[in-house]
Specification:
Elements: H1 12-48, E1 67-78, E2 81-84, E3 87-90, E4 92-106, E5 112-129, E6 132-150, E7 155-167, E8 177-192, E9 195-206, E10 221-223, E11 225-237
Antiparallel strand pairs: 1-4, 1-11, 2-3, 2-10, 4-5, 5-6, 6-7, 7-8, 8-9, 9-11
Length: 240
């Protein structure tokens, strides 16, 4: 009778396979435990600022965008210029008042900021016509768009444009829309951190002809010129 060769027990093979799998799992667990400890160490060192490894990721820097909310009151002295029948004459500006809200935000970490808002103001001017004093009053919504360069947190110079929309009673012969250039010189004085008192001197140079005449017909040329003084508060914060 032939004898069969002795083969390993079939039940023994799965046992070996299980042992190998368990060894691999143990090695993987040790590897990931090591990675976790290295990550924890890097995070701790980066938080304390001491012993930061060179391969540690740098934390993202906070935003440097600064937003300003500026409630203001103002004094407005308008002195329009007018050309009529080949002659040129000016109006005498009277001091009028206004109020409104301006807001601005810095352009990233540059010294520039962009300002806009809405101001309700009055413009009053007079001139003498054949010995008779003529007074002109305009009530308007003033919308500025200003790019300002800040030398520091105290002094800034701005240049931009504006749009004026007349409201209420408008003098006959005057358009209710005006567009032009705007110049600004502002000083800020800190009251408490984030809160400033501001003084802003502005010059408004109108480019629109406000004389209400048909297109292509020669006649009056009426342009706005005014000086303004803004007084107000500026609350400054970083939103992000």
């Amino acid at each position: 009778m032939r004898h069969r060769p002795n083969f390993p027990n079939r039940h023994f093979l799965p046992t070996i396979r299980n042992v190998l799998i368990e060894l691999k799992l143990n090695r993987m667990m040790k590897f990931w435990r090591f990675i976790f400890l290295i990550t924890l160490f890097c995070s701790s060192a980066n938080a304390t600022g001491k012993g930061t490894p060179q391969f540690a990721l740098q934390q993202s820097e906070p935003s440097t965008i600064v937003v300003e909310i500026n409630p203001v009151v103002l004094l407005n002295a308008a002195a329009p210029t007018q050309k009529q029948n080949g002659g040129s004459f000016g109006w005498t500006g009277e001091v009028a008042t206004g109020f409104g809200l301006l807001t601005s935000f810095s352009i990233f970490d540059s010294p520039f900021d962009l300002e806009t808002g809405a101001i309700y103001m009055n413009e009053t001017s007079t001139r003498d016509v054949s010995g008779i004093s003529v007074t002109q009053k305009v009530h308007e919504i003033h919308i500025p768009l200003l790019l300002r360069f800040n030398f520091d947190e105290k002094i800034g110079l701005g240049f931009g444009g504006y749009a004026d929309i007349a409201k209420g009673s408008i003098s006959p012969g005057i358009h209710d829309r005006d567009f032009g250039l705007l110049f600004s010189a502002r000083a800020s004085l800190m009251i408490v951190p984030q809160l400033y008192f501001i003084i802003d001197g502005r010059y408004q140079h109108g480019l629109s002809n406000l004389a209400n005449i048909p297109p292509g017909v020669a006649g009056d040329v009426y342009n706005t010129r005014s000086m303004q003084a803004y007084l107000g508060l500026s609350y400054r914060f970083m939103p992000f």
